[in-house]
Please model this.
Amino acid sequence: MAETTSATGKCLCGAVKVSAKAASPNVGACHCSMCRTWGGGPLMAIDCGTDVSIDGEDNISVFDSSAWAERGFCKKCGSHLFYRLKPTGQYIMPAGLFPDGDLNFDHQVYIDEKPAYYDFGNKTENLTGAQVIEMFGMSN
Model:
């Protein structure tokens, strides 16, 4: 099993607090067009698994962004809170929600959709959109 740690964080205004019991220490960047439209750039996020608790759920709005996932954000400040896979309940959460810790930027997904105007210097595993869809057993 991959190394995990507990992580707690909050949105910009503090109306929503999140706690993940099994957060990955690895940060990934998603370059898909939806993530870039949602946040203005790549989504830098960590896999928080399914054991996530949220305080302030009445302050969350959820957008059904695809057949397999939904995105949550704070209704008060607009902070992005999660990308949640519908079939498994797995939470992918923005790394910025959590205080700086010992994180490792190690992978990029939808690398085939990354625009040419930016590049990261880190050596990472790079997966195309088709590889991600296959890995999670999703279909377009």
